[in-house]
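Hey, sorry to bother you again with one of my protein questions. I've been staring at a protein lately and its backbone has me curious. I owe you a coffee for this, so here goes:
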Amino acid sequence: MFSKILIANRGEIALRIIRAAEELGIESVAVYSEQDRDAKYAARATEAYNLGAGPPSDNYLNVEKIIDVAKRSGAEAIHPGYGFLAENAHFASACEEAGIVFIGPPASAIEAMGSKTRARELMQKAGVPIVPGTTEPVATVKDALKIAQKEIGFPVAVKAAGGGGGKGFRVALTEAELPDAFEGAAREGEKFFSDATVYLERYLPDPRHVEVQVLADSHGNVIHLGERDCSIQRRHQKLIEESPAPEWVVDSELRERIGQIGVEAARAVNYVGAGTVEGLLADGEYFFLEMNTRVQVEHCVTELTTGIDIVKQGIQAAAGEPLSYTQADIQLRGHAIECRINAEDASRKFAPTPGSITTYSEPSGPGVRIDSGVGAGDEISPNYDPMVAKLICWDSDRAQATSRMLRALAEYEIGGLTTLIPFHRALLATEQWARGETCRDLVEDAKWLASTAPAPADAVAAPDSDEDEPKVARNYTVEVSGRRFDVNVIGPPSQFGATNGAGAAPGAHAQRQAPKRAQRGASSGGGPDTLTSPLQGNMWKVVVKQGDTVEAGQLLCIIEAMKMENEIMAHKAGVIVDLPITEGEPIAAGAPIATITAAAGGA
């Protein structure tokens, strides 16, 4: 077994790996960017090294810097976690060349499964069912149109060959939508995976996303730990995961078939460590989607239903030890659900909401697990993904686990940020969730999402409040005739003698509300002449110019925030008389994007 390992990651997954290392008697080495200097995981590790300031490309994605720290610290192995360099074959090879063990599969397996087209070809040869589509890259929109017309039909999915995690995935419902889908998938593939290659698949409109957890060692042992249902998604990114899938969706026979597909996929690439084979379940047919050659964000639900520490098993496998379990040892007990607590506002189409955490209190009690790496005073940066924490609940069956999750969500308090807690509470209380549906009709329904806005209960509008001034909510506890009441007051910060969402009186809770002007401009068909940004981020692309005539709902620009592209549409028809935005430049929430008037030349 290793005596010291380096964790090439940050946040909750870094802390998760450090804890596993401590239980195995292994010293840990953390790396951190200047922005993460005070992060909890860096303080928890045995040693910590500063990788410098700047974007992730200068630190967490800098292979040379990380290898150098591993050598200087004497770390024998590197655990990549998920994201960043976790599925980077070059990084795995660089570790091997430096005499450092990569805690994960061999570079050849990462390379094989990292290219979705090659992975589809390998799985097809191995007899694993794949979604109908191409196994070769598609070079041009013209070629894509020809293939879609003659072989696949519409709707068709355009996917980046190096994609994953919902990135580089666009859908064309009609021929007219194919050029934009092709360009968007290629653009995201180039940006996030340095590979603009795309391929086509038949688009399955409402499939279930069912994946299987696999473990493999270097002695030829490969097992699966049952399935996870990850069908609750937005923009092809997961929001809620559960294990096992609802019993009326996956029975014991289908579970064995899906598990065997996962095992065969792992064997086909000589896999070692923890990995996940993802698939789509539609009308009783199960198709291979992709293999994630790393530990998954949602591995926690499988740990709770099997009692197996997946991270520790991955470390032991990398050290050359055999798996501690055989397939016959695997028994699923009870039901587990995970809610991703992201800094996002579901009521505004999941707009990222980076900022400082003012107050923080986690739920607890039987069957409740929190994987987080933050606390009060910490910053959720727009430079990284929006995850604040993962809340995982276990109980004897799905209904009981849901009740426990709702109780835990009600206990969770995060001040200073809008998070997905109100969304999770709303969705888990629906009949659709109880019936085990994909809930896609809700997640894609702007009106239903708007109903999940984090408006405080019993809210009272503050007198003389300015309609267009950003609002905050303050919670006061009062007693009347010996009975305690919580009263929430909404108004501008000046109403409370403070200048922002923080600075509340002791015991008061503050939650920032987005300016109404920004919400109106981003969603309505009329309203003020000036459209303001609903979020903070970087101006990724501007598709119009000053003087253009636009229609309501027409695409103006794309803002990148927290690894997501957010399309900003015109809030009204007219002429763009002012366009104070530049590609590549940062933009603040509430900053002007465009001024549009009904008549040319007016302002």
About this structure: The chain has five domains: 4-103, 133-202, 208-450, 459-512, 516-597. The CA atoms of residues 423 and 452 lie 5 Å apart. The first strand starts at residue 4 and ends at 7. The chain is about 25% helix and 30% strand.
